[in-house]
Amino acid sequence: MTETPKYTVMRKDGDIELRQYPSYIQAEVEIEESSYRGAIFKGFRILADYIFGSNQRNRNIAMTSPVQVSEGQKIAMTKPVTVSGEGTYSVAFIMPSDYVLATLPEPKNSAISFSEIKPKTMAVIGFTGFYRKKKVDKAERRLTQWLENENIPIEGAFIAAGYNPPWVPWIVARNEVLVEIKLR
After folding, report:
1. Which of 33, 36, 66, 106 could make an SS bond with 56 (beta carbons 3.0 to 4.6 A apart)?
2. Is 96 exposed, middle or buried (0-12, 13-18, 19+ CB in 10 A)?
3. 106 vs 184: CA distance, rounded Å
4. Is 31 found in the same domain as 111?
5. pLDDT attached to residue 90
6. In this structure, are 144 and 60 located in the same domain?
7. CB 29 within 8 A of CB 47
8. pTM attached to this predicted model
9. Tens digit of pLDDT for each residue in 117-134?
10. Are 34 and 52 found together in one domain?
């Protein structure tokens, strides 16, 4: 069974949940690509190579889910987010929970960076179907509207998360849109 991040559901309203996540480590790569789907495939390939042994120890690392994708922000060139603005996407894998930063093998590909994500509260909406930008945008709009109605402020960028490999039938494919929030 593929490991997924642990979380606690704090509140549920239909297909929207407020969740508390503990800290975790993610491997991330920034992709410049005009196509959302193209960015996912490029980023996935780079990160999959790493976990399938393209690292300094030639060690396989267990696959986890979801694959996370967020659009780049126009900011200065700093790590872990080295983005140039529009047409840039961050693609990330969450590392298995039995690793800490010091025990992860160093990647051979210098485009891969690691971040320790601190505990946070996320608003999440799920959807099924193919992992397409149009569906992600629709889920973002629905989640944003719900958060505005509940007077819950957004703290960060939206993240699209896909849990299934591409051969899973679209009707049962599990996807989510997440955003960090600040509860009052």
Report:
1. 106
2. middle
3. 40
4. yes
5. 94
6. no
7. yes
8. 0.87
9. 999 999 999 999 877 889
10. yes
